[in-house]
Amino acid sequence: MTQELTDLRNSILEARYQDALAIVDELEGMSKKANLRQIKSFLKILLIHLIKNQIEQRLTNSWAASIRNSIREIQEINIKENKKSYYVNQDEWEDLIEEEVVEDAIADASLEVMNGKYTRSQLAAILDRNQILTTANTFLSLTYTYSPKELPAIMDDYFSQLAGGENRVF
């Protein structure tokens, strides 16, 4: 990125504005790609814990904390600098999850669910993907409705709807 900024400065100083605009576009693309990479990373963590919750039918405090942290980080990263638009819009999550993240989450979760009892393919076969997608989308939709300050308390209400979260206080 340092080279791009140097090239941008030189392009502006030399009045090569088309070159400068091309560099700005490249920098914007790099920024978006980096943000999407971070979002996918936190999305994978979210999915791993939702998979563990579904298969093991329990919810530990550390899983709840990881889910909450993932959603809060996604909320922070997803909103663009203008605070009015997003890198991933509310109706784009399902495609992003299905196309790029869920298989990695299943593979990693297979190492953790019931202490590695299932292979990746076994876990994929018994997992209710639709339920995982629905639950993930429910949590992700909260990021568009609630402020970062309100979000943790709202999420606590949703934890009670997860297996093992019925009678817990978070």
Automatic annotation (TrEMBL):
<dbReference type="Pfam" id="PF01724">
    <property type="entry name" value="DUF29"/>
</dbReference>
<protein>
    <submittedName>
        <fullName>DUF29 family protein</fullName>
    </submittedName>
</protein>
<dbReference type="InterPro" id="IPR002636">
    <property type="entry name" value="DUF29"/>
</dbReference>
